[in-house]
Amino acid sequence: MVIGVIGPEYRKRLVDHLLDELLEQAPAILLTGPRAAGKTTTAARRAARVVQLAAGAQAAAFLADPDAALRGLEEPVLLDEWQEVPGVLGAARRAVDADPRPNRFYLTGSVTAVGASEMWPGTGRLVRVPMYPMTQRELRGDISGKPFFDRVADGDELTVPADSPDLLAYTELSLQSGLPMPALSMSGRPRSMWLESYLDDLLTRDVQELGDHPGRGRDTHLLRRYFEAYALNSAGLAEHKTIYDAAGITKSTAAAYEQLLMRLLVVDQIPAWTSNRLKRLIRAPKRYVTDAALIGAALRLDARGILSDGNLLGRTLDTFVVSQLRPETGLSATRPRLYHLRTEGGRHEIDLVAELGGQRLVAVEVKASAAPSDEDARHLHWLRDEIGSRFLAGVVLHTGPRVYRLGERIVAAPISTLWG
Q1: Residue of 64 and 277 predicted with greater confidence
Q2: Are 102 and 27 in contact, with CB atoms under 8 Å apart?
Q3: How far is CA 160 from the centre of its chain?
Q4: Global confidence as pTM
Q5: What are phi and psi of 165, to 5 degrees?
Q6: pLDDT at position 111
């Protein structure tokens, strides 16, 4: 399979339904996501004309006069990798101001925004749609089911697929990647080499092309060490100082590096959940790499290597679970927002707290265990008892084969029910 070719082998993405709905009314859509996540392939299927702004010949006219270059093109137009010619954003805005017909422009990019010192020209004109690496639902070719949090909120039965993995297989799935090329076309050493090359390019060429950062933010050797420390602490609550001390860099350099990686959409943060009803909650975010396979690529570890370190195994599974849930949040009828929860001193800690519309909560724990017990759900019991009716359900996601109850409104369910 050749990734990026428009044809019958295209795998439907979770955002496809949303894009279909938006194009009926929105004149311009900005599709953002990590490089090689499949943005161009998805958008190109809807475009009458594709302009590759990373290609010098196609970009030349837009660099010289983006308004004139855009005028007269057959629509809808896909402007791929807009960050290569940031002026196209202003041109698209002016075109939309002059004629707000729906379904005129698609813009795709691998960075979050233009430089902080510039005014964002797309406000009120471009609808932003995030696109993440592929989930197991997408890779398996079945996106018809309801998002996980909608199923839980509606009291639906959580279904275990016939080929539900064991612990080793879950670890291998985590390192498979959600990036289409390695996930769909590669395995074994070629996949590992592709991911390591992807990371090399990301930490060298892609970072260098973000030209609005100080020189200290471009030391690729130190940036690599920082990313390795970040990956080692993915899904963790380590203080930022722990990460930048491990990388041997200063606080200010670490802050610049983190912003670089967040702009490139390869790391993310989940904020802490807070409530007036609960005291002594910490407010620090949890840090994640957006694709669990980059943990293996950064640390040069395979599934067996991950399994040999219980702490890293837990972080990898947590990162994998979040990578399955994150792409569904903007598509869910319940409109969940993802948080984590921890009290001071770590007395109570919950991996994910999804706050749904109406301030209802679904809490999720991730366990590298085939048969979690009531003890593994103790923090969910605590949260349920503290907040009462706002607590819809608690789910302990595990690596075993069965769904079973662990108490009132609390169940244990295999991780595979995320796509079952």
Answers
A1: 64
A2: yes
A3: 24
A4: 0.92
A5: -75, 170
A6: 83
